[in-house]
Specification:
This protein is of the alpha+beta class and about 260 residues long. Helices cover about 65% and strands about 15% of the residues. A three-stranded antiparallel β-sheet has the order 1-4-5. Strand 4 and strand 5 form a beta hairpin.
Length: about 260
């Protein structure tokens, strides 16, 4: 059986084209398979990047929250520290005030006790002054008499008791005011009479009828004196240079 030439040619062509068509199909399938793998890789990469990005965002948000919590705790701690420092400062000031109050109270109490002691001593001394006056008058009167030896010894004993009493007064800061021959001082002396005497300066104490007493600069009893008149005016005391005694004080110390 003869095959037509055209059919034979077509058949030959088909035979020749068949391997080429199969090769092209395999190439397309391989290309499609390669593209699918790349897409899968890209998809996997994108998925990994997205997961990493989501994880980073989550961790970043958590870190921000933790940072905010830490800052809040730091702020609270700073406020607590400031409150504690304020309390400590107030406590220190209160302690200083209490210490100052205690020192003032202690000094005031000591001064009050000293003042009470001085008042009690003044009261006792003032009560004893008339007794001292009587003893002095008795001794002075006895010295004017002709006394036997025994009585003279008795007077000497009374005089010794009088001296001891004055020593006790001196120990308590009591000083006698006996201004005979000095300028009259109305702050410590009481004039009970005037005596004309031109040989002395005017307003000079001529005689002391009763001695006065002072204690710690305070006059317990003024001295009762007589004052001269008719003499020259007493010159004003010269002002001595700083650190040197006045003229009257220097004269008194020399005497």
């Amino acid at each position: 059986m003869k095959i037509p030439v055209e059919d034979a040619v077509e058949t030959a062509d088909e035979k020749d084209d068949a391997p080429q068509t199969a090769g092209a199909t395999d190439s397309i399938d391989a290309e499609e398979a390669t593209m699918t793998e790349e897409e899968m890789v890209e998809a996997a990469i994108r998925a990994g990047e997205q997961a990493a990005d989501d994880d980073f965002k989550l961790k970043f948000e958590q870190a921000q929250k933790e940072l905010a919590d830490v800052r809040s705790e730091l702020d609270a701690a700073a406020e607590a520290q400031k409150a504690a420092e304020d309390k400590a400062h107030e406590a220190a000031e209160r302690t200083a005030r209490l210490q100052a109050d205690w020192e003032n109270f202690r000094r005031r109490t000591a001064n009050e006790r000293l003042a009470e002691r001085e008042r009690a001593t003044e009261k006792l001394v003032c009560a004893l002054l008339p007794v001292v006056d009587d003893i002095e008058r008795a001794i002075d009167h006895a010295r004017t008499l002709d006394m036997a030896d025994d009585f003279s010894q008795f007077v000497d004993g009374v005089d010794a008791v009088h001296s001891k009493m004055l020593d006790v007064f001196a120990h308590e800061g009591v000083e006698p005011i006996d201004p005979k021959g000095e300028a009259f001082d109305p702050l410590e002396q009481q004039a009970v009479g005037r005596v004309e005497d031109a040989s002395q300066y005017d307003e000079t104490v001529n005689d002391v009828y009763q001695k006065g007493y002072r204690m710690a600069g305070h006059v317990l009893r003024s001295a009762m004196v007589t004052v001269t008149y008719g003499g020259e005016k007493r010159p004003a005391p010269e002002e001595a240079p700083e650190g040197e005694p006045a003229a009257d004080e220097a004269t008194g110390s020399e005497e």
